[in-house]
Amino acid sequence: MNIKWATxxxxxxxxxxxxxxxxxxxxxxxxxxxxxxxxxxxxxxVQSGKNGYSFxxxxxxxTVLESTKSLMVDKDKRGLFGPTTDMRxxxxxxxxxxxxxxxxxxxxxxxxxxxAKNEECIRADAGARSQGAMAGTAISAGLVVPAVSGIPxxxxxxxxxxxxxxxxxxxxxxxxxxxxxxxx
Length: 184
Hints:
Elements: H1 2-27, E1 43-49, E2 52-58, E3 65-69, E4 73-77, E5 84-88, E6 92-96, H2 116-148, H3 155-181
Antiparallel strand pairs: 1-2, 3-6, 4-5
């Protein structure tokens, strides 16, 4: 009988402990673990309650900083038909990137400086294409057009095609040579 009571006592304690642990686990609110990547320019807000939870996360907050200034116009009229003078003050709205440089549009390097080299390359490419197209048209007009204009019935059409082909090939060649010459 002694072993019976010991087994019954241990079983009762074991069952009571399990009921207590289950009650503790079931009453404890379960929230998911969300690991947000946290950086210098990120922010997050988590709200939780009995009815559920919500969160808001911004990876690059603030993405754009804004500054506004307003315009004031004061009119001063002298006499009934006298001259009117205007006193104007400026209205300006600027946007800044996260590193503090003013956003003026266009490409920006990682340091926040405009890519002047890129702008120079675009201008150089446009000039090289134009010069190449003129040279290609001139070469095709001098060498190819006289040879194909004598073709019966379609000579006039073939000479136009030759000029267009010379224009296109010259433009592409000029762009390639200009990019090599200007280190773009």
